[in-house]
Amino acid sequence: MNNKIKKILCIALVAVMLLGTFTGCGNKDESKNGIIVSAGTSLFDDSLDPIKGSMSYGYPFVCEALMMANPDSEYVGCLAESWDMVDATTYRFKLHQGIKFSNGTDFNADDVVFTYETVKNNQALNSNVDLSSLESVTKLNDYEVEFKLTKPYSPFFDVTAMLQIVPSDSYDSTLFDTMPVGTGAYKVVQYDTNQQIILEANENYHGTAPDIKRVTLVYMDQSAAFAAAKSGDLDIVMVSVSYADEKIEGMKYVEFDTMDVRNLSLVTQPVRTIKHPVTGKDITVGNDVTCDVNVRKAIAIGIDRQTIINNALNGVGRATENYTENLTWTSKTGYEDNRKEEAKRILEAAGWIDTDGDGIREKDGLRCAIDVIAASGDDDRYRLLSALGEEAKELGIEITAKTGTWGEIEQLQYTNGVIWGWGQFSPTVIQSLYSSDRFLVGTYDNVGGYDNPEVDAYINAAITAETQEEATKNWIAAQDVANAEYPYIYIVNIRHGFFISDRIDISMDTQIPHPHGHGAPIINNMADWTYVK
Amino acid sequence: MSTHTHTHTDKKRFEFNRKTFVTMMVIFAVVYLVGVGIWGLFMDPESYAVNYDAKFVSPNFDHPFGTDFMGRDMFSRCIKALSNSLIIGVLASLFSSFIALFMGVASAVFGGWVDKFVNWCVDLCQGLPHLVLLILISFMLGKGVNGVTLAVIFTHWPSLTRIVRAEVMQVRSSQYVQAAYKMGKTKWQVAATHILPHVIPSYVIGLILLFPHAIMHEASVTFLGFGLPKEMPAIGVILSESMDYLATGKWWLAVFPGLMLLVAVVLFDVIGDNLKKLWNPQSGNE
Question: Which of A73, A441, B219, B264 could form a disulfide with B236 if both were Cys (CB 3.0 to 4.6 A apart)?
Fold first, then answer.
């Protein structure tokens, strides 16, 4: 009898425990808890306020801009229904009607005027969206605005995709750092600094209501995120391509096309001391090895990019001799690399000869050796740099791989090589990279001190172009002329790698090529994500 | 009878008592550490050169410690790294101990405000968390070999200073020291001829026990990214690199270098403790 009671009790106990387990599982699958995403830490680095430059890479998130990029890298309307370039300095945008912000207020021309005027008046707060060429923004009627520029400025079209609109009547500079209000598919419901951002679907959203109602973006470093994904705690996790061969049960490894390139900047000026144009202090710039265009050219044509990608990046990424191929305004003029014999001939003709037999060339007692710095904390860049060094060694050029914080790179970038990552929709990056008047002025701009009046002229022509076609033509011409002198050596157009849970479909068809952003750009089409039924 | 005498003398000649054991331990530890130091110093960089064809090879006969993400042989790299760490650690502790010796002797011999000042410095240094002070100094000096060496030098003298000071205080009151003063010797003369020789044994043991601290701290500061640069083989660098691959099961990248560091540190302790036993057999009665 006693035994029987014990048995029943045991069974009851087990049943209760099992029930608990099942409800546990149920909770996880229930869409109430949503999904957990680790998309790098850059989302947490800066304010979420569009007025301060948040999400300026051209895709909607909590807030939306007038325009946005589509999967073919073309601009399409987002809050704007139609647009018109009246003349070279006048742009008109017709806005969609019936759109509401997540707090319930209506979106109209006042919000656009407010957003642009606030940024223009507080330009110091926003280093991502440059409105210095904007003269005025006027409301023509409730759903039409007109922008007047001080001078023709073709990248203005990009600006309208970069600056997301905030509500004029409830904007709060402090609150919006963490809890911005916008017209996007999601709204922030909880923000824990450097821990997590919890998003919920915006019930006032003007598009199709997202299938995934709740998304938690977590702050984790890569190896922690990978371990968490392995134990089944994450639904989406950004990983370095060095994880590409790993397996996680219930997840698949997916790679995304990007416009994110890795390039090496080489200083084009000889060593000298000059006055810093901004601070007025004396500063030493230049590098006596890389100021020789023959050295730069030998590296550019002599290295085998594919080998570097195989060795450093697990074979993931596309070898490139230019800025990415995923954009309309980039030069597509490539050249064959891995021409080692030709590179050696160029070096020898220029007087770089290995006289002491250590495998590294010299010229007038100067070793053909440079230091190149990769940002610490980005191991893919360090691996890339190390692999580049091995390739350069075969040419008789010594590249010493170093790492440094961005603060240190700012000190060293005018005398040493640096590995950079660039990738954005706006062609103004070409101006930053090559324009001679950016040298020493913009923090990471034209660090090699490249100075070519012909390139400057093309850049100016592109910026002041009256049509996008003309602008594109000049941007490409500027790159073609500059690339022939190799101030930057483009190596790879990388791909972003993610592990994605089998229960989620992240709508690959509507993903845009990812801009630079350490994984964050995967959220560009979050509204289209669905649970796999 | 004769057989008995024979065995007796034999026994005496090869007696394996604690003293021989302790001496052998010390000799073994010294040989190992000096050996690793010299091996690394004269190692051909080619032995840990990049070889992309052999990435992430798990430990085998050719690569006892496996290879890393660039196909570098981890055994050679570890030896080179440990050698670097040993050399930096030993150099830093030597200089640190000079500071301690000077400060300790000066403090005890001169007394007064000198003593107060030295004690104040010791308290100041020991009042701050050790690692924080190390990072601070290393960062200020621009990291790298110089930064981390100077940081270790400037943070490891306080405890040894205290020991030296206490020893000197003991000797100072003895009669022959007093007699030397009465015969007109200056404080520096007394310190050099009468006090210093008595302090040397404790100083040397203190110095040897300082080595593992210095090496550990150098490795920790480097691990945290404030020490030796990434391109230089160092245990801290290897361990911090290994962190990225632990999650994917590349255990050998962390286990062997970690073990090597541990063994080196333990061996220094063995030397220090056993030398104490040899030089000061009465210390057990204290």
Answer: B219
Q: What is the DSSP letter of A260?
A: -
Under the phi-then-psi rule, with left for phi > 0, alpha for psi from -120 to 50, and beta for the rest, what region is A426? beta
Helical H segments across A96-206, by residue range: 109-121, 156-162
C-alpha to C-alpha distance for B177 and B180, rounded to whole angstroms:
5
Q: How far is B93 from chain A (nearest CA, A)?
A: 27
Give the gap in angstroms from C-alpha A246 to the nearest C-alpha of chain B: 7
A223, closest residue in chain B (CA to CA): B244
Structural domain containing residue B281: 2-46+71-285
Q: Using a CB-CB distance cutoff of 8 angstroms, which residues of chain A are in contact with residue B50?
A: 386, 390
Q: Which residues of A touch B69 (CB under 8 A)?
A: 242, 383
Task: Kindly state whether residue B103 falls inside one of the protein's structural domains.
Answer: yes
**Chain B CA closest to residue A402:** B231
CATH code: domain of residue B153: 1.10.3720.10
Residue B133 falls inside a structural domain: yes
**Are the beta carbons of B244 and A379 separated by less than 8 Å?**
yes
3-state secondary structure of B261: helix
Distance CA A298, CA A302 (A): 5
The interface pTM score, or ipTM, of the predicted complex is: 0.77
C-alpha closest to that of A116 among A149, A163, A75: A163
Handedness of CA A104, A107, A108, A112 (dihedral sign): positive
Residue A146, classed as helix, strand or coil, is: strand
For position B143, what pLDDT does the model report?
86
Q: Please state the domain count of chain B.
A: 1
Let me know: does A218 contact A199? Beta carbons within 8 Å: no
Which residue in B225, B241, B247 is closest to A226 by CB distance?
B247
Give chain A positions within 8 Å (CB) of B56.
none
Selected residues 239-268 of chain B with any CB under 8 Å from a CB in chain A: 241, 243-244, 246-248
Q: Is residue B64 part of a domain?
A: no
Residue pairs between chains A and B whose CB atoms are closer than 8 Å: 40
What does each of the 286 residues of chain B score in pLDDT, given as a tens digit?
Answer: 444 545 455 555 666 777 888 888 889 999 999 999 999 999 988 888 888 888 888 899 989 999 988 889 999 999 999 999 999 999 999 999 999 999 998 888 888 899 999 999 999 988 888 899 999 999 999 888 999 999 999 999 998 999 899 888 888 888 888 888 888 888 888 888 888 888 888 898 889 989 999 999 999 999 998 889 888 899 999 999 888 888 888 899 999 999 999 999 999 988 988 888 887 766 655 5
pTM exceeds 0.90: no
Does residue B63 fall inside a structural domain? no
Quick one: pLDDT at residue B13?
A: 60
Which 177-236 residues of chain B touch chain A by CB within 8 A?
225, 229-231
Mutate to test the interface with A, among B50, B53, B77, B248 (most CBs of A within 10 A): B248
Residues A399-458 have pLDDT tens digits of 999 998 898 999 999 999 999 999 888 999 999 999 999 899 888 999 999 999 999 999
